[in-house]
Amino acid sequence: MNHLAYDPPADTPSPLRAHGLTLAHGRVPVIRDLDLALPRGRVTAIVGPNGCGKSTLLAGLARLHAPEAGRVTLDDRDIRDFGARELARALALLPQSVTAPEGLTAAELIRFGRQPHQGWLRQWSAEDARVVKAALAAADLEALSDRPLDAMSGGQRQRAWIAMAIAQQTSLLLLDEPTTALDLGHAIEVFELVRDLAAAGKTIVMVLHDLGNACRYADYLVAMRSGEIVAAGAPSEVVTRALVHELYGVDCTLLTDPGTGAPMLTNVRRARAPKSASADT
Amino acid sequence: MWRIAARGHDGRWSILVDKRATAANLLLTGLLLAASLASLCLGSASIGATAALRGLFGHGDAMTVFVIRELRLTRLAAGLLSGAAFALAGCLMQTLARNRLATPGIIGIDNGATAFAVASVVGTGFGLAPPAMALAGAATATAITFGLAGGVGTRGYRFIVAGIGVGAAFGAGTQLMLARAPIDNANTAYPWTVGSLNAADPLAVELLAVGLPAALVGAGLLARALAAVRFSDAVARGLGIRVGRCRLHALALAVLLSALAVAVAGPVGLIALMGPEIARHLSSRRGVPLFGAALAGALIMVVADLVGRRVLAPIEIPAGLITSVVGAPFLLWILLRPGHRIGA
Ligand SMILES: Nc1ncnc2c1ncn2[C@@H]1O[C@H](COP(=O)(O)OP(=O)(O)OP(=O)(O)O)[C@@H](O)[C@H]1O
Ligand SMILES: [Mg+2]
After folding, report:
1. Which ligand is nearest to the CA of A95?
2. Are B159 and B104 in contact (CB under 8 A)?
3. CA–CA distance from B128 to each of A28, B109, B118, B182 (Å)?
4. Are A118 and A180 found together in one domain?
5. Residue limits of the ABC transporter domain (chain A) (predicted)?
6. Architecture of domain B19-336
7. Among the atoms of ligand 1, which is closest to the Cα of residue A57?
8. Does A271 fall in a domain?
9. Does B281 touch chain A (CB under 8 A)?
10. Cβ contact (<8 Å) for B238 and A92?
């Protein structure tokens, strides 16, 4: 499948939508009147400068942040109408910064991902064991499964958290900067894992800072600035020199990846003309 | 490390047992039984273990039966129950604040309970029984602390600082009431200020005998949610935990347990710091060692009371003084141990 040839989501109704969403921290609105529809079974990348509201948007989509106005729907139902566990079985979020209790091992962390599927009378099943094992394998952590997270490298720890989100077995996966601490090899592994999960029907959103990877691995790109979406669509259609300049205040040369047809940025340099406005909000 | 203890034949139900936590709890139970027996045997007149056990069940000479059942057993019960309650309250509070320093003693709840109880004992006009007063005081201190801090916060520091201030104010209030009270009343109130099992209020012990098992069941029902709350609100909610409700229930349990424990033994609050710490060391990291903390707290209280009774006999050192002597270095160790996170 050439995932870069992204079709508009006519045949694939969006499972998760934001309708006129406004999210604020205290009095300050961070996201203003935002509409978004995530394509089902595809990988969406959210890009934008620091502080533009990407993490806040993910928190709003995952019902961790109550909206000032507007709403979020999951399969056309307002997420506020979902039960706590019901939502946790439908949607998993990996926040940008997470800490675990001291001494917890990777395998123990990943087992927590099964919690929404468990209950008082069903504390552990063969299915749980299978899913945890698969998640450990997916994150390439089998050899480290019994190592405490505090005794792991940042990237290993991040992979354990990704594995926990995977073990939650949700059809929607929201990942906030999942590859920031990862080396090239493991970052590519995560991206390929994300592609596999999408191919298996999951809907995935990643916040990414690397525009190149966003173009390469996402079907749908959402570019944000100051709490608003400035462009959304297939990467090959929306990524332009003007957009890159608008987002990050840099000039670049855009090429087309001969292998995948995805846009590629080279020769990135500080814009000569002063930026119209600070990208940092 | 993990074992499925029981499973329905169709796999529809299964119960998971953590081997390490079970081993830890068995160890603590064994130590607790030994300490309890020692506590029954040792005293101004020492009684042999066999005679003590026989006396416990009403056999042997009348004097031994009286000493064991009427004197030492009531004191032992007061120690077991209050120690367990302090430590369980501490474990709940530390977990919901994600901070090892956030015990009811440190954040002023014990002092609030004590101040109100002392107010009723020295006759300031409040007519309620000490346990009820302790509960009112604990609730008041908690409300003020929460009001000042505006919630628990992410790492609980604001909450702790506010609580220390509230605790200091209530502590000063207690001192003031005692200084102005007639001396014989102040003597009655004295064990409340240091913490001792010497004058345990029978009504409070009975209330705790009912309240502690109920609280253990309640805490057990919260255990899975609390284990997830240790991460962060976002992670816990992402796992389908109703964090607000879990916090509220855990807080209510902690306040109730602290108040009843203070009503029995006075502010022996450092047990709330030590009990959970010992349990966490022995248990696995996957869960919150609520039961282990209760066992460890009971053990510390019984041993502290025993040591206090025996070390300078016939002079009795209050158990609260013993736990302070041990607990103060322990607190420093928690704060200063290298490579050790204070966040629970
Ligand atoms: N807890 C908070 N309280 C107040 N303001 C906040 C809080 N969290 C974030 N903000 C503000 O909201 C805005 C958006 O923050 P957000 O974390 O969503 O940005 P982001 O796009 O994820 O940035 P980054 O790329 O740095 O992760 C920023 O201006 C930030 O200062
Ligand atoms: Mg962010």
Report:
1. 2
2. no
3. 49, 19, 11, 20
4. no
5. 16-251
6. Orthogonal Bundle (1.10)
7. 18
8. no
9. no
10. yes
Give the per-residue pLDDT at B12.
63
Residue whose tokens read 């089902």: A40
Residue ranges of the alpha helices (H) in B98-201?
109-121, 130-149, 157-180, 183-194
Cα–Cα distance between A229 and A234 in angstroms, integer? 14
State the average pLDDT for chain A.
Answer: 87
Domains of chain B, by residue range, sit at: 19-336
pLDDT in tens, A104-131: 999 999 999 999 988 777 777 778 888 8
Q: With contacts defined as CB-CB under 8 Å, which chain A residues touch B227?
A: 112
Q: Round to the nearest angstrom and report the end-to-end CA distance of chain A.
A: 39
Taking a 5 Å cut-off on Cβ, the residues next to ion ligand 2 are: A 55, 96
- The pLDDT value recorded for residue B190 is 65
CB A252 within 8 A of CB A241: yes
What CATH code is carried by the domain that includes residue A218? 3.40.50.300
Q: Is the pLDDT of residue A21 over 90?
A: yes
Could you tell me the two tokens for A32?
């203003």
- For ligand 1, what atom is nearest to the CA of residue A177? 27
Q: Is B231 left (phi over 0), alpha (psi -120 to 50) or beta?
A: alpha
Distance, in Å, from the CA atom of B122 to the CA atom of A72, rounded to the nearest integer, reads 59
- Ligand 1 lined by A55 (C-beta under 6 Å): yes
Taking the C-alpha atoms of residue B171 and residue B267, their distance in angstroms, rounded to an integer, is 10
What ipTM, to 2 d.p.?
0.85
Tokens found for residue B250: 């855990």
Lowest mean pLDDT among A76-85, A251-260, B221-230: A251-260
Q: How far is B295 from chain A (nearest CA, A)?
A: 22
In this structure, is residue A211 part of a structural domain? yes
Ligand 1 close to Cβ of residue A53 (< 6 A): yes
**pTM score over 0.80:** yes
- Burial string for B181-200 (b: 16+ CB within 10 Å, else e) reads beeeebeebbbbbbbbbbbb
**Structural domain ending residue among the three candidates A130, A146, A166:** A166
CA A64 from chain centre, in angstroms, equals 15
Phi-psi region of A71 (alpha: psi -120 to 50; beta: other; left: phi over 0): beta
Q: Among the atoms of ligand 1, which is closest to the Cα of residue A54? A: 21
**Cβ(A46) to ligand 1 under 6 A?**
no
The pair of structure tokens assigned to B63 is 């004097």
Give the mean model confidence (pLDDT) for residues A147-176. Answer: 91
By residue range, what is the domain housing residue A151? 101-166
